[in-house]
Task: structure prediction
Amino acid sequence: MLNEDKGAPVLKIQCATYDECKQKLFEKYGNDYSIIDRKQIIKGGFLGFGQKTMVEVTYNIKQRLDIPRSVSSVEAYRQSGTATWQKNREELLKAAGSASLSAVQVAALDKKVDELKNALTQKLDTITAVGTEKHPSIQKIENLLEENEFTFKYITAISDRLRKNFSLEQLDDFNLIQTAVVDWIGKSVFVTPHKAYRPPHVIVVVGPTGVGKTTTIAKIAANLIMDAKKTGKPRPEMRIITIDRTRVGAVEQLARYGELMSIPVDKAESAEDVRTIYEDCKKVTDAVLIDTSGYSPNDSTHIGQMRAMLDVDGLNPDVYLAISASTKATDLNFIIQNYEPFAFGSIIVTKCDETKKFGNILSVLEEKHKSISYITDGQRVPHNIMKADVVYFLTRLSGFQIDRVHIDDEFGAD
Result:
């Protein structure tokens, strides 16, 4: 099967994930391939049992006979060169009049052609050896990004960008390269802009079990009080609602926080309960904060039921998805996908004190085009929460020499 536009063979590869397919293609072809299509397929199983979902990627191999840059394209060039020498030999024999040439003369001509072919082969072998090696600066950047747990897709994009934007001479200047890469990482982090809300501002925090949603709700409430005090505004009137029906002691924990901050805390068992509490307080409340149950991302049934509890006319919630900073990239993708029904506006990255690697978070959020609103790094209320800050993540990159003055100028708060 041929691609009619490019004349290149169309091939297929099947893997568990799209990233795995890309990694295998990169290992085999470098950058000399183009993905044409991808789709999910079902494989295996009998009568519907034991089936598994796979990703099938359709691709072709780039043909670069003019400028060999990889093993595959050099081999194509080598074959093209051999055919050219054979054609030249036939033309030489024809021009000289093969009938008038002796066997010795033909043998001498063939020897000369072989010498030229061998010279071409040696040259192409050199190109192959050099062309498949990465520039040391690019390899070092890839190693640093891998050390910081960025995804393969993110690392490949950075490497491709380096090749396209910098000359060989510039690549020799590693300080220049790493400064550019740090800037690119910073620009890939989306911070949720500040927005003004008409009261009551309904804040909902959702997310899997164990990410610290209840403590985060208390921190947000405490910070609303502190922010009002700093700006000389009246203390906001607030109400906390918990719809957490799974964690033992969740209501008692929120009640203690509510008592300390003089905020009423209510428990809701159904959408009707949420509607009743909301209607009761909406005209006299500046903010309503709703704590939710934590479920496994695989538990779509209970996640759907919890979403239905928030289906209240006029609620118009500002929904945040809380995720732990140490969550693996593959799990992050799954969590985001399964909590999409809540139409969450941004992310709260919790437990940042429990890890030193943030590449997993930054990679997935950049790919999903999700912004970060808050960062939490401990259990203390009202402390250990801050508004998202690009500089926070950049200064925690392992192995990079960080120009603090530069990144403060480039990404610091206004």
In short: DSSP finds 15 helices and eleven strands in the chain. Residues 103-131 form the longest helix (29 residues). The two ends are 57 Å apart (CA to CA).
